[in-house]
C-alpha cells in the first residue's frame, strides 16, 4: 500500500471514529425538556459538595487574597473568574427552579431584571435609595455605570430568601402579608451579611457609614427592593408548583449554603462579627429546613 493510500485510509478511519462519537453524543443528548431537566438535576446532585462547599471556600480565599495583595495582577479580582464562580454557585438554584419556569415566569423575571438595572442606575447616579456609592472593583462589562451581570448577583439573593421563607413557613406562607413580613427582613438580613463583606473587600464603597462602612439608608433601599421582589416572584410562579419543587429538590437552596460559607468566611476574616453571626444564623435556618446537613458531606465522601 502506498503512503497516499495509507493516509487516505487513516483519514477515513478518523472520520468514521469522529462520526461514531458524534452519533453517540446525539443518542445521549436529551430529546425533551423533561429529559434535559433530569440531566441537569443529576449533574448538580452528583456535584453538590463541589458546588456548594468547595467553590465558595476557594472563592473566599481568592477574594481575601486579592484584597490583601496576596494574589498578583492580573489575577486579583479577575472579573471573569468572579463571574464564573458566581454562576457555578448559582447553578443549583437555577436548575432547581427550571421545571417551574413558563412564559409567565419568564415575563415577570424580565420585569425584575429591568427593575434591577433601573434602581441600580438611579442609585449610582443619585445616591437614592441605597446611599452614595461607587464600584471600585471591575465586575465585568458595565452599562451606564452598572455591571451587565448585576441580575446574576441580585435576583438569586432575593430568590433564595423567598424560597427559604416558603420552606420554613409551610402553610403560613399562603398569606401574602405573612410572606412580605417574613421575606423582607430576610432579604435585608442577607444584605447585612453581603455589603459589609463587599465593602471590606473593596468591591464598592459608600464613602463611610455607621455599620461596617455601610450607611443605614442602604438597608432602607433594600426594604424597597425586597417588596418589589416578593410581589414580582409571587406573580412569576404558581404557588403549588414552586412549593412542590422546593419540597422535592434537596439541592434547591445550595446557593444559600454557598452564600453562608463565602460571605460568612469573608466577614470573619475582616472582623465583621455581627455580619458573620447573621451568616451563621442563616446556616442554622438551612439546618432547620433540612438543607444544610451531613447528607451533603456524606454524598461527597461516597
From TrEMBL:
<feature type="transmembrane region" description="Helical">
    <location>
        <begin position="219"/>
        <end position="238"/>
    </location>
</feature>
<feature type="transmembrane region" description="Helical">
    <location>
        <begin position="148"/>
        <end position="169"/>
    </location>
</feature>
<keyword id="KW-0456">Lyase</keyword>
<feature type="transmembrane region" description="Helical">
    <location>
        <begin position="176"/>
        <end position="199"/>
    </location>
</feature>
<keyword id="KW-0472">Membrane</keyword>
<feature type="compositionally biased region" description="Low complexity">
    <location>
        <begin position="7"/>
        <end position="21"/>
    </location>
</feature>
<dbReference type="InterPro" id="IPR017823">
    <property type="entry name" value="CruF"/>
</dbReference>
<protein>
    <submittedName>
        <fullName>Bisanhydrobacterioruberin hydratase</fullName>
        <ecNumber>4.2.1.161</ecNumber>
    </submittedName>
</protein>
<dbReference type="Pfam" id="PF04240">
    <property type="entry name" value="Caroten_synth"/>
</dbReference>
<feature type="transmembrane region" description="Helical">
    <location>
        <begin position="259"/>
        <end position="287"/>
    </location>
</feature>
<keyword id="KW-1133">Transmembrane helix</keyword>
<feature type="transmembrane region" description="Helical">
    <location>
        <begin position="49"/>
        <end position="71"/>
    </location>
</feature>
<dbReference type="InterPro" id="IPR007354">
    <property type="entry name" value="CruF-like"/>
</dbReference>
<feature type="transmembrane region" description="Helical">
    <location>
        <begin position="77"/>
        <end position="98"/>
    </location>
</feature>
<keyword id="KW-0812">Transmembrane</keyword>
<feature type="region of interest" description="Disordered">
    <location>
        <begin position="1"/>
        <end position="27"/>
    </location>
</feature>
<feature type="transmembrane region" description="Helical">
    <location>
        <begin position="105"/>
        <end position="128"/>
    </location>
</feature>
<dbReference type="InterPro" id="IPR053540">
    <property type="entry name" value="BABR_hydratase"/>
</dbReference>
<dbReference type="GO" id="GO:0016829">
    <property type="term" value="F:lyase activity"/>
</dbReference>
Amino acid at each position: 500500500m502506498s503512503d497516499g493510500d495509507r493516509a487516505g485510509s487513516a483519514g477515513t478511519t478518523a472520520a468514521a471514529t469522529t462520526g461514531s462519537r458524534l452519533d453517540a453524543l446525539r443518542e445521549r443528548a436529551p430529546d425533551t425538556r423533561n429529559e434535559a431537566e433530569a440531566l441537569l438535576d443529576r449533574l448538580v446532585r452528583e456535584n453538590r459538595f463541589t458546588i456548594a462547599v468547595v467553590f465558595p471556600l476557594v472563592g473566599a480565599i481568592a477574594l481575601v487574597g486579592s484584597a490583601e495583595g496576596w494574589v498578583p495582577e492580573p489575577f486579583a479580582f479577575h472579573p471573569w473568574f468572579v463571574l464564573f464562580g458566581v454562576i457555578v454557585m448559582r447553578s443549583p438554584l437555577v436548575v432547581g427552579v427550571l421545571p417551574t419556569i413558563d412564559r409567565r415566569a419568564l415575563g415577570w423575571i424580565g420585569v425584575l431584571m429591568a427593575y434591577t438595572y433601573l434602581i441600580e442606575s438611579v442609585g449610582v447616579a443619585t445616591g437614592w435609595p441605597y446611599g452614595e456609592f461607587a464600584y471600585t472593583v471591575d465586575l465585568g462589562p458595565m452599562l451606564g455605570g452598572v455591571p451587565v451581570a448585576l441580575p446574576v448577583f441580585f435576583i438569586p439573593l432575593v430568590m433564595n430568601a423567598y424560597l427559604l421563607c416558603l420552606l420554613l413557613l409551610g402553610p403560613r406562607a399562603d398569606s401574602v402579608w405573612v410572606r412580605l413580613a417574613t421575606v423582607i427582613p430576610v432579604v435585608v438580613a442577607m444584605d447585612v451579611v453581603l455589603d459589609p463583606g463587599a465593602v471590606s473587600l473593596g468591591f464598592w464603597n459608600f464613602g463611610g457609614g455607621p455599620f461596617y462602612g455601610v450607611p443605614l439608608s442602604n438597608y432602607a433601599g433594600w426594604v424597597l427592593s425586597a417588596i418589589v421582589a416578593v410581589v414580582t416572584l409571587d406573580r412569576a410562579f404558581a404557588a403549588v408548583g414552586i412549593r412542590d419543587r422546593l419540597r422535592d429538590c434537596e439541592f434547591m437552596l445550595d446557593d444559600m449554603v454557598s452564600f453562608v460559607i463565602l460571605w460568612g468566611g469573608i466577614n470573619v476574616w475582616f472582623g465583621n462579627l455581627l455580619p458573620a453571626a447573621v451568616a451563621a444564623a442563616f446556616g442554622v435556618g438551612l439546618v432547620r429546613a433540612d438543607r444544610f446537613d451531613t447528607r451533603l458531606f456524606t454524598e461527597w465522601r461516597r
